[in-house]
Each structure stands twice: as structure tokens, then as C-alpha cells.
């Protein structure tokens, strides 16, 4: 397995314990995360060789972030340090009919002020065979968009696999670029699309619904528009409430449509990063398995992430495999 | 919105973390609450103008209690301080088939020794347009009953709205007064009845069952007996077990019977104060909405309270409104 | 009620908070447990007179263990102290489809090096009328097997009741003894069998399935083979996932087959020691009740244990009785 | 060593962590203590045979208190349970020039309502050879004074040693008895006086200063007035500030005056119960040692208590002995 | 006592427990502070009438900040809310020879983007008789400087007392203004100077040393240059190490030089905000006492602040007064 | 700077919070440490290139240990995993005159069962230029002694620097080897001796006292006996009590005797690993500085370690350097 490259902002997450709000707390817990590094850390935890590229504050908070990434044996050697602060987000974890609440302090962070010249892409991608990006990075600032674009172009030139998770968040994209145009440019460098109807509608300008037939039709249209893309993977979440979800996945790989059974996640511990756990499972799976089994692996990884507090999936390869083998009842051996 | 007056004991609640018993713990958490102040704090947290009248110990525990109330921007200027201790209750939060356990240390508290001359009701109600009381206060001591009675009489004279939540607890009423007679006297000063079949049976001396028809019949009888009362609101709780309840509400306003759909509260965090959250939602709602929408607002507030640890409802007006708008799946936007 | 004797290893359990893994933690909680002492502590907590015999380290960890047992007013006077360390186990509590994980450090513990001459069985059993053992003890070392055997023989001679819970764990039995032979020898000293199909198959060398008919057939065969055994009690667990189980029980007492209804344990707090809680409930129940009511008592005790963190059942006699009286909805009175 | 009897109120202490105030906290820690039970627990922890007699609430807080005492293997069989709450005190631990703050909620506690008929003194003192009392108990209520008096009279009749620690707190003695008269009556049943100039001045009505000469003179006068008393032990505390004290002791046993060197307690962890640790060390010491060595033992025990959080001295006999042997530099062996 | 006005940034402080670094932690504690609001909160805690003016994020972190200020009964009605995040700082508390470490994330905070038109100074100062400012505010941005300047000019016009604490931090003043010129302009609106030699040298362009004579000479020169200023108060800190300081104060009021004795702060809990506690004590004191006693009051308040974790001085008026009365040994009464 | 090799057991340390004993706790904190890995981690934290060689359990505790080492960017690629448990030690941190207490569970740990064939020394030392060992490793088992010996012989062959810290603990050395002979063999492969009079007396069989003259004489004798050794560094600790130490260092490098001034460590946070911090500082320092400055660096590192909880020195190169530059008063800049 060659080196997998992830690129994106590392954020410090600060959350009260359990389901408390900040207004009820004076003790909080912190984690580090960010959609792309979550993917990288999860793959590293499976044993993969992953390098994460980002820009981090040159203070003890930045040191702590790097130490956190090192725990997973992620390659942190290409990380840039500047004197801007690390981005922070505050999360209050909801329950039942109360959704989680989030507040960001990232708009002038170290990463948001990244510029293309700060990354030595040639060196960074030297041993890479896979590049993963998401729609968050181009949505932040012109600098982060340009830097990503430069990396993706080189990845394409080098013939790397490029997985795209073009998650769309309306609260971002504030700096003046047209989101569809930007994503279009980046998707032309990509080979695997990880996203659902919303994301396809966003980049295609369509209005497809959520049925499997529409998913297949949208996927075909996507592949037609972006010929470099060969496969589409979608994770479907059904929320009973903030504490109880169901998860399944479906795919179109140009030939076959497949879908998995539902995982019934009756007692969610933390849903942040579960989509990233799906992407990580998929990327890891595709190194070893066929498309369908990779999707199953990704679904199981995603389901397991709901049982870990924090942004990162602490599931091990053994835990995911045990579920793939049909052990979903949570019984333990001793 | 004029000033809402609440009157009643403030208690310090002490609870082990999670579902632990005291015998398993050496660290505990504390909160302040009490059925009437819970109502007041919840309305203040919605942005209402609320004054709470009570009697609190003149020590650092009393200082802490007042500081806790101030957090919510509740008007604490009418609070009396004496050298008796603050009442305390100990709560062990149950789970599944294990009920919560409670133990009180309140019988000689600062509040229990309140006397009518200690409250300047004229001044306290000067800007009030609503008075809320519960059946706990008259059940404590002759002094607390008398003090409440004096306040209610003035409220009636001033033409204030008076909401009554005559919760009946058999463990109280130890000081020699007949509970039905006492409540009857107080209900004659009241305009809104917040309670169900049990409370109506208690004050009417009847034996109605739980059907809607019986609820309507009981409400009519209540309104006949207490002509000042014009509306009856009832919250119905179905306990699957200590961790999983369903909540709905119904009302009779002299003309219409209405009921809400069930909220399915699959993962209860803390059920203390959920009835108070209903009362608070109702009182707040009735300032702005019609009876039915007020009851819906109250139900949503009550349901949300189950997701907050402590006695007080930390739900914001936005959170309640989002549920009224139909968003009950707990998904969060970012 | 005479004195109940339990004999077996006391382990220190170390667990992260909630559903965290060690790799996510730097604060952990500790408890003491072990299948036999869990039974003893639970009976002592019900108010029974219980003596636990074991071997514990002669250091501050051993002091802490004894202090923990003393909390329950268990008779600790027969406990032996040596300079070997106390056994430890590490537990990560799972959730939903993630099973709990366990890692033991017990193979050279104080208890594992126990030898028959170290226990004065005559004195230890002087006031005993019941002896409880499990399949863990003979599975550890030759010394622990021999010591147990000596105790059981004396118990048989003295005509004590002997309950056997021959839990089989394949990870143990590493020291060279044939497990079936060893258990056979010990079962010939026993009067009550607490175990299910798996345990009966293990000692009978059969291959029965899980139906009630097969349970009865296996029980009859067991009683035929071990004439000292007169009753068989079985607890059946259905795992929806690691957070949600159902529990029921069944029995054959030589004459009647009976089974209980399911307890639906929708929000598990900690499932460690729930089987021990069943055994404890059964032993306690059989001092006072008939077989069927004892089994009901045991089931309720077992169900309640799922709501307590740690290895020991903190349920009180009142809590169990309330459930026997049909109050399973977890409502609390105040 | 015969059984040592202690009699007095058990209080629940609730304190924020470290040096926080309640107003800064939402998490607190709880302990159980009370001057007489602190003495009993400390002696039990040294390995002594101690029975504590008290009256405790019949609820889960009372259960927790008894479980706490059982940890130390204290004999709790004579404890009375009533439906009054356990007394509580709140403590904020000071630092440097900030003194600790304390607030009591004990005036209608289970113990404060004790009456002589509730204690079976004959049975309770059956195996006793030492009775320890303090000036707190007679200062609470007529009932607690009368109950103590009855016990002391029987102790005197039986020829038991009786140690008196007549600590005087002006905030108590509110129920109408003259403190000097009450203490005088009790001291006439006592054999060992544990107290200093303030206490002697209080019971003698004198005005002695703090010099050694005055101490000797006061002691002589005390022994003359109370012929049953044969020895006087005094602990002298010098406060540099709330975090740094010096402790030494002196004695007059009718023949010799002796005093110890200062212990320099440069980093106090918790000073509550340090006087009780002195009394406990003295009582324990006097079972084995001469007066001077007992006083040294008591001083070392007292000094060590300053390093333990909570009311009880967790020092072991080995820790005290090591200091008696001259190892005061806190170096540890491994 | 009229209303005291404070104006400045409110920051969220995040710190690991005790002396841990972030790299050693996953749990942290948060507080709110900021040099000016620390002064305001401390005076409010003494019972003063204080209004704080600032600009805070319009999210749940901002809500939590306001709730925190409300605890102290500070007037928060003039606080502006915008959609920029609240400033944050991270603090690692040192010990012995290890200094504390600090990292700021405040450069694009809600407050840093304040502009003069956002504050209605006329309304804000309507009931004010004292305005307190520090050198932090003009050092942040042109907007914060301009807004402060406008407020101070109005304060001068209205004849309010204006206290200036022109703390100089070289890490600030990055936006292009000359610090001496800016401070000069602001000092011409001020009446009380709270600062030492460093601050006087900064604004005078002098190079005085730390002797009392030089302090007097510098003070005279300052008063000559800024005729509105009538008194100079200086707090002198001697650091033995990060855990042990000595504090004293000196003053020149145009006529007299006075200085206090040292407070020996042998066990520092938290030194953040101790300078603000001095300023608060001084402002509060000058409402009631003469200059010297006010300075003593301020010194005692400052000393006490070292014993409270967090930015705010939780000392009460009773605690400060007890020290003024000479009780510095930290003994407590009960 | 070439790669520094450390070899030795990694232990899990479990400690209650603050100065609590286990018997007072139910929550504890864990760390990883061990004298040699402490040295390695500290050097890695300074930025050095360090590889640690050890044998660790193949379970989630072992995974957690490796993740902990990775945080420091230590090279963990040569670590062996077996199915024996990781060694554990329990530590209760003392205060004032109470020493810390320690209890080990390491005698059958993964490392204790290491054998020479399990380590590929050729590969492990391929890039090494320094090897550090301590007297703990040969004291454990024959296997650990033999494995170390093999490594040291190769290191000597390769001409690497070898630092020896032959700490002598009488509680070890239980497996039958003569400690002096074993250490002698290992010292003949060493070039730097880190130890004091006790260690020199142990290996020389002498009886030198603690004066500087005797230190020089002993050092000369040591160098004569072990010609490979060229320098001796000694750290001298003066314990006022368990909370307050003084530290200084002295050296003999064959030519010069030098000693440092005392560091006065008035408020110790955690003294475990402070000797290892000295060794780490020395090894790091000797890569860049002369002997004397290296010793100063080592002393400052050692002093700083007393302010960090846990076994590892979290001091950064900047923190040590600041002290070398004379800033020992703990003032912080902002």
C-alpha cells in the first residue's frame, strides 16, 4: 500500500462532557479533527501509510495538535507552522430531539491563510498513490482553494487515485468564488466520488430525489460530465433522532448498483466524523477489496465511529472485520 | 411582556455522575432547583422578565444559589436571607427498570421557616402581571402556606393571571393542614390550572380515570367549582422505563378540547424538572400564542428538558421553535 | 440465614470513563470484582452473611481491595495476604455494535499462586451453610483447583448446599488439566447448577441446542450423571447489540420446568457481573422463597445490575422486590 | 487491646476540589467525618478495635455513611437509624492568607435528635475499655448531652479509661445549657484530658497564657479540680498561613512535663481532622507506649493527617512509625 | 456609590487542570476574563454597581460569557453582540521555575472589530461616576482605540473619575499607532494612575529605576505632564518563583508617599488577574476610604486573588476586611 | 545528531489524583514510563532522534503505550510485541513528611521475559551513535540482562557512546546474579557514568562519603577500574520533605571538577523521572555543549521535571534554555 495524502485544516474541537451545554459547564474536553485529517487518522489507525498536509499554529496548541496526530503514527513531516492561531470549533452534543450545536472560530486561522507557495507539492506527493480532498477546503479561502487545486493537478499528472468528498456547507464559500465552478474544476482531477444526491445536485445543477433509480441516473450523469470519475459511493443516514440513526450505503461503479443493509445505531455516542470514517473505510478498503466489499467495510467503519467520542474513528481493523464477518450483536469474548 | 412572579423554595440538588449511586461515588455534582424557581428560570432563559421570591441561607451556599439564579438574568432582588440553611436534596438518577431515588433535607430550611411578614408583597408584585404557584409550597409549613396565600390574594386583587400547578406529594403535608382545603383556598385565586386527573381528583374528591372524556368532564367540574379558573392543561407521561418516556399534552379551555402528538424521548438524560419545563413553556407561550400553540410550545419545551442534566430547562427559544416547526429528528446544520 | 461462603480471585478492574478506549483516555476508574466475590458482595448488600476466601497482595492495592469489600460488610477475616501482586484486568466498555474489550494481567497473581495448605477450611467453613464456586477458579492454576477441591469436599461432608456456576472460558485452562474431568470432580460436590446449555454440553460432552425441551433433557441428564445436583437454573441473554439486551431465566428442579418473561434492558450501563448478580439473587432467594420466585428474584437482580457501573450489583433488596411486585417502568415516588 | 468506644455525630462533608469556592464549582467531593468518628476511624485504620455509636438517617445517604465507616472495619453494629436527615457541612478550603470557610446544616439532624433511651449503653460498652468524647456532643442539644452523660457515667462505673477533648466552639451551645457546668460534669467521668490552654481556661474559668510554665500550672489546677484526670496532652499549632503550619505537642502527666519538636508542615493538603488525628494517635499510642512516646506518636499522626484530603487520617501504622524512627524527609524507597 | 463603567475585551480562557500542559491533557477548564472586565467583576462581587461595555459573539459561547458575567450581578445590558467569534486565550499554569505559558487567539475577535458608532456612550455613561480603562484596549486595533477614546472624552466632560492602568505589552500595538502618543491622549482624560515605573517610563520616555525616591520623582513628573492625574498607585511584585511571590504597594497622591508591608504569598493558586484585583480593590476602596487605606484594601484584594483559580477575584468584602484587620494567618473560625 | 538508542521496560503507571491514596479514590490517572524510556522520550521532546527498544504486550494496553510513545515522535519501529502483559506500577504521591508509596506488578511482564534472540541488535543499532542503559534492566531477569549485554557489546564494537546510569535498587536483583559482577561487565562497555557515591560504592565495593573530595577520589578510582569510562556526572538531591527539594550537580571529567548551584524546588508537582530528566538533559547537552554547560542543561532539565506530573519530562528546549540564561523566577511574558 503506497502513501495516502490528505490535505486540509486541523481544528481543535472543544466540547462539554456528555450532553451538557457550555452554559452548564466549567470543564470541557478537547480533541483535534477536521474532515480530511479525520480520514487520514482513521486510515493510519487501520495501519495505512498516510501523510497529512496542513498549516498549524507555531505555539503550544500547535505542538499539542501535532502530538495528537503522531499518536496515530500519521506522517506529520510536511506540516507547515505559522504564527496564526489554530482554528477552533465548539460543539455541544445534542440528544433525542435536540440537535447538536456548533460554533466556529476558524476564519483567520493558520490554515485559512495558506498560500500555494507554502506547500512543496512535488516533495509532498513523491511517494503518494492516493489523494483525498473534501469540499470544505475550497470553501474556506482563495488561498486554500488555490493550494488544493495545485496539489490535485499534480496528483492527476502523476496518475494518482483522487477521492473527492465534495460536502457542501452553505455557511462557508464566503470569499467570492462560485462553489459549483470551483468544485467542477477540482472534480476534473478526481477519480472516486464520495457523496450523495445533494452533492451531485450541487455540482450538476440538477434536482434528483433520493430513490435508488435517481441515484443511478445522477451517478451516470456525473460520470459523463466528469470522465475521470469512475465510481460513486453514497452513505445514507436516517435520523430517528439525535441519539438514534440508521446507516446504509449504495454505489454505482459504472456497471453495478449495490447497496448494503441498514446498521441500526441505537445509542449514538458521537456522530461527528462518521462521514469521514466512511470515506476512510472506503479508501482503505479499495486498497484490498472489490468495490462492494470496500463499501461494506466503509459502512461498518462508519457505524463503529458512532460509538467513539471525538472526531476520529478509533475502530481497529479487527473491529471492522468482525462486523464484516457478521458479528453485529456486540457480544464480547474472554 | 410584564413581570412574571414565581414563589417557592430553592433547593440545592446533589447527584452523583451519570447513573451512579452515592455509595459508588466520591465526586458529585450540584445544581439548584425547586419546582417554582425551575419555572421562573426557564422563562427567564426564554427571555422573559421574571422575579423569584424565596428565602435563602445567608452563607456561601446561599450566595452560590443566588449567583446561579443570576446566570439566567432572573430578578433576585426580592430574595430574603436568613441564618437557616438552604434545603438540600440528594438524587440518584435511575436507568431502565431502576427508578431514581431521592432523599430530602428540607424540613427546617430557610424557606420552611418563612412567615408572611417577611415578604413585602405590595412591592414584590408592583410590576407583576402573572403569578405562578405549585402545590409544594402550601405542603411544607404553615408559614409557607400563609405567605403564599397572602401573595395570591393580592395577585387576585390586582387582576393578575395566576397559574396553579397543584402537584400533590403525599410525603409532604405533615404540619397539620388538610391538603384539599388548603389547595381549594389557593385555587380560588387562580386562573389557569396545570395538572392532570390525579390533581383534579385530589382537589375535587373525585375518582376520574385517564381517558380524554373523563379529563374533559373533570375539567368542567373543576371550572364549575373554581370559577376563576378558565383553562386546564395536562401533560401525560408514558414510562417505558426510567430511560425512555413518551410525552403528550391535552387541554380544555372551556370551549375546546385539544391534544398533541406524542414525543418519543428514547434516551432520557434527566427527567427532573420536566413538568416545570411544561409549565414554563405554557406560561411563556400564553404571552404570545393561542391556547393550542402554547400547549405545543409547552410540550416541546418539556420534551427538550429531558435532554438537559439538572433541574432547569436550558432549552432556548430557538430550540423550542425549531421543534414547533417540525424539526424533531435532531439533525444539525453547519 | 447461615453464612454463605464464596471462594475465588479478587481482581482490580480498570476502565476508562463511558465508552472510551484507553488510547483516548488519561483518566480511568477502578473497581474490584471477580465472579465469586461479585456473588458474595451482592448477597452481602442484600443483607446476607457472607464470607469471602481469597488471596490478596500485601500492599496498598490489597489494602484498598479489602477496604472495598468491607464497604459491603462482607466478612474478610479469612483473606490471605502474600507478596504477589493482585490480578488486574483492563476493560473497555463497548456500545451498539462494538463489543467490550478485555485484557487480563492475572497469570502470576497472588490468588493464582494459592495452595491448599494456605486455607484453613475447617475454620473457614465453621459457620457456613452454603458454598458457591465457579468454573473460573479451577481453570486458573493447579493450586487454585486443588484448594477449591479441598474446600468443596469438606462442604459436602458437612452437608452444605453447594452452588456451581461452571462458566467455561476457553482462554483459561492453560495449566494442563482436562477441564471436563476437573469440573466433573467438582460438580460431584455440588447441589445447585447455575448454567445453561453451553455449560451442560461442556460437562456432559453433549451437543444440545437452546430450546426449552433440550434444556429439560440436558438438565435431566445432568442430574442423572451428578446425583448430588437437584436443580438447574439458566439465564438466557439476547443481545440486540452491546447497549441493548433482553434477559430471561428458566429452571428445571427435577419436577417442574418454569421460565420467566423477558426483561427488556434498553440502555445498558455495564454488563459485567450481571451473571454473578443472577447467581447471587438465586442464592439469596433460595434462603427465603420457592424455586420459581427465587428465579424471578434472580432475574430482577440480574436486570438491575445492568444499570450499575462496576462489577458488583448495587441493587438493594427493596429495588429487587419492587420489580418482583411488578413495578418495572422505573417511575419514582417522592 | 480492648474495644475503644467513640460516640458522636457523623456528618457528610461536601467540598469543591482544591481551593475552589462553591461559587466557582459545579463538581464537589464528599466525605464523612465528625470529630469523634474521625478519632474512631483513625484508630481502626491503625488496626485498633473500635465501635462508634451514633444516629444516622435511614436513607441512601445514611447507607453510604455506614458503608464509608465499614471501609475502615469500624464496628458499626450499634448505629441507630432514624428518619431525620444526616447532618451536612460545606467546606471551602482556603490557601495562604485566605482561611477555609465552613457552613453547617446540622441543627435538626438525625444525631441532634438523639435521646438517652435510644442507646443501649450496657450492651454498647460490654467489651469496651476506653471511651472517647469531645466538647462538640454536649454542645449540640439537650438530648445529645444527656445521652453522652449516661454513657460516660457507665464508663466510669466500669472503670474504663475516658479521654476528653473538650474543644470549645462558641457557635454551638445554643440550647440553653451552661457550657462550663456541662463540661465539668462530663470531665468528672474522664481520665485523660486532651486540650490546651483555651480549653483549660474555659473549664477552669482562668486566664492562663500559652507558656509552658502556665501550661503546667493550669494542668495542675485541672487535675486538682478533676481528680479522675491524670494526664493532660496539648497540641500547639502555629499558623504561618492557611497553607503552612507548624505542629508540636506538650504534656503534663502529674510528674513530668515533656514537649516535642516542631513538625514543619510546609504544604498543607487538608487540615480538617488534624486535631482528631492527634487524639487518635494518643489513644492508640497509650495502649502500647509510655506517655512521651505516645505523644510523639500522636504528633506524627497529626502531622501526617495534614497530607490527606478529607476528615479522616489515612496514615498507616507504618507511616507513623517511620516518622517516629526519624524519617521525616519524605524520601521513598523502591 | 454611583455606577462604575469598565470597557474592554472579554476573553474565554482555556486551561488544563493544575500545572499540566495541553500536551498532557484532554480535559480542560474554561473561565472568562480580560483585564477590564476582571476589574468590573471584582467590584461587582464586592457589591459595587458596575456596568461593563464590550462586544461579544452572537453564539452559545457569547451566551455563556454573558451568563458568566451575570453570575456576579454585573450590568450586561450595554453589551453588543456581533457574528465574529469571542477571543480565546490558552494558558498553561507554571510552577516553581517554570513560567506560565500563554497563547492568544484574539486578533479578529468580536471586540477587536468594534467601532465607535457601535457604542452609545451617552446612554452608557448616563449613571456613571467612574470609568476604568487599561492599556490593552488601545493596543488592539484602531477601532478599539477610537471607541475607548470617545468614551473617555465623554467621561472627562461629565467630570467622572477615570482610572488608568496603562499596562504595556510589547506583543500588542501591531496596527500602526504609536503607543506613547495613544496613551498620552488617553491619560489626559484620566484622574488616577495605576501603574509602576515601567508604565511611567513608557509614557514619559524616561528611564527611572525602582527605588521609592525614583517612584516619587516619576510620579511628580507624571502629574506635571498630565495635570488631570492626581494620584499614582503602584503594586510591586517580587517573584521567588512561579509558585511564590511577595506583593506590596506604594502611592504618591501629590502630597504623601506611603507604602504597605509585603504579603508573602507562599503557595500561589493562580496569578492571572491579580493586578486587576489590585485595581478593583483600589477603585472600590476609594469610594469609602482614604488613599492609604484604599491602597491597603487593594493590596489585600490582590493578595487574596492569588488563592483563586480563574481570572476573577472571588474574594468577598468580608475576606478583604478580615485581612485589613490583621488576620493574615489563615486560621478559620467555626 | 545521530540516533540515540534507549533500551528498557515500559511500565504503565497508575496514580490517584493529587496526593490521594488508592483507598481514598475511585478515579486514577495513567501514564507510561520506565527509567530508560523516560530518557528517550525527554530527548525526543527536545527534538532529538531517539529509538526505544523494548517488549510490550500485544493487546490494547500495549497499543496505548505505543501511541503514547508516538506522541513524542520517538522511533517505536523496533518494539517487540508478545502475549505477556505490560508491567504496571501503582504510585501514591506523598506530601510533606509523607513519602510516596509504590507497588510493582512487573515480575512476569512482557519485558521481563525478553530473550537475546528477540532483538535484532545489528539492525537496531544501524544508525545509532549513542546507547543509554540503566541498572534496572540487568536487575530484572537473566533474559533482560543477557539481552542488554549483547546490545552493549555491539555498541562498544561500533564505537558508540554509551551512558550508564547504574541506579541500584535492592528490591530487584532477585534472579540469582551477583549485581556487582553484572554491573561490572556492563560498565566495561560504557563511556559516561551517570551516578553518585552510592552507585560508585556499589560497583567499586568502596565506602566513600558524600563530600566533593571523596566524589573526585571515587570518580578517579572508577575511571581507573573502567578505562572506557571518561566522565562521571552526579546529581545531588537534598530533601527538605516530600514536597520541597534542592537539586545540584557535580562532575569529574578526568581533568576538571565542577559543580552547579542549587535549584530550590519549593513546590514539587511530581518527582518521578527527575533523575531520568537529568540523564536526558546530559545526553542531549553533550551533543552540543561542553561538559559543564551540559551538566547545567541537565540540572535545569531535572529541576523543570519536578513541575510536570507523570514520568516524562515535558520541558521544551526553550524552557530549559531560558533557565540556563538565568531566568529562574518563573515570570511569564505576554
TrEMBL record, chains A, B, C, D, E, F:
Domain Carbohydrate kinase PfkB span(s) in chain numbering: 3-311
Matches recorded under CDD domains: KdgK
Single GO MF annotation: 2-dehydro-3-deoxygluconokinase activity
SUPFAM superfamilies registered for this protein in UniProt: Ribokinase-like
Keywords recorded for this protein, A-Z: Kinase, Transferase
UniProt-listed Enzyme Commission number(s): 2.7.1.45
Family: Belongs to the carbohydrate kinase PfkB family.
Protein's name in the database: 2-dehydro-3-deoxygluconate kinase
Organism, as annotated: Jejuia pallidilutea
Lineage: Bacteria, Pseudomonadati, Bacteroidota, Flavobacteriia, Flavobacteriales
Amino acid at each position: 500500500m503506497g502513501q495516502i495524502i490528505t490535505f486540509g485544516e486541523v481544528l481543535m474541537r472543544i466540547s462539554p462532557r456528555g450532553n451538557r451545554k457550555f452554559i452548564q459547564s466549567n470543564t470541557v474536553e478537547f480533541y483535534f479533527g477536521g474532515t480530511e485529517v479525520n480520514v487520514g487518522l482513521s486510515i493510519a489507525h487501520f495501519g495505512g501509510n498516510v501523510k497529512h498536509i496542513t498549516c498549524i499554529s507555531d505555539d503550544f496548541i500547535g505542538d499539542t495538535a501535532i502530538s495528537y496526530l503522531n499518536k496515530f503514527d500519521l506522517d506529520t513531516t510536511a506540516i507547515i507552522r505559522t504564527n496564526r492561531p489554530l482554528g477552533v470549533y465548539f460543539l455541544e452534543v445534542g440528544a433525542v430531539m435536540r440537535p447538536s450545536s456548533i460554533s466556529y472560530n476558524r476564519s483567520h486561522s493558520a490554515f485559512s491563510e495558506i498560500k500555494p507557495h507554502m506547500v512543496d507539492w512535488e516533495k509532498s506527493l513523491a511517494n503518494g498513490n492516493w489523494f483525498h480532498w473534501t469540499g470544505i477546503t475550497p470553501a474556506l479561502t482563495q488561498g486554500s482553494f488555490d493550494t488544493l487545486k495545485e496539489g490535485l493537478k499534480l496528483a492527476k499528472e502523476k496518475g494518482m487515485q483522487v477521492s473527492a468528498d465534495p460536502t457542501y456547507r452553505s455557511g462557508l464559500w464566503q470569499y467570492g468564488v462560485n462553489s459549483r465552478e470551483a468544485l467542477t474544476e477540482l472534480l476534473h482531477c478526481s477519480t472516486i466520488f464520495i457523496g450523495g444526491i445533494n452533492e451531485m445536485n450541487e455540482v450538476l445543477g440538477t434536482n434528483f430525489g433520493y430513490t435508488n433509480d435517481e441515484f443511478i441516473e445522477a451517478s451516470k450523469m456525473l460520470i459523463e460530465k466528469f470522465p475521470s470519475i469512475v465510481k460513486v459511493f453514497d452513505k445514507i443516514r436516517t435520523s430517528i433522532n439525535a441519539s438514534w440513526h440508521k446507516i446504509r450505503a449504495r454505489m454505482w461503479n459504472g456497471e453495478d448498483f449495490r447497496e448494503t443493509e441498514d446498521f441500526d445505531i441505537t445509542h449514538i455516542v458521537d456522530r461527528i466524523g462518521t462521514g469521514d470514517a466512511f470515506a476512510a473505510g472506503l479508501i482503505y478498503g479499495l486498497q484490498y477489496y472489490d468495490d462492494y466489499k470496500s463499501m461494506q467495510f466503509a459502512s461498518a467503519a462508519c457505524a463503529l465511529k458512532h460509538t467513539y467520542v471525538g472526531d476520529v474513528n478509533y475502530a481497529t481493523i479487527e473491529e471492522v472485520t468482525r462486523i464484516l464477518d457478521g458479528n453485529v450483536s456486540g457480544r464480547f469474548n474472554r
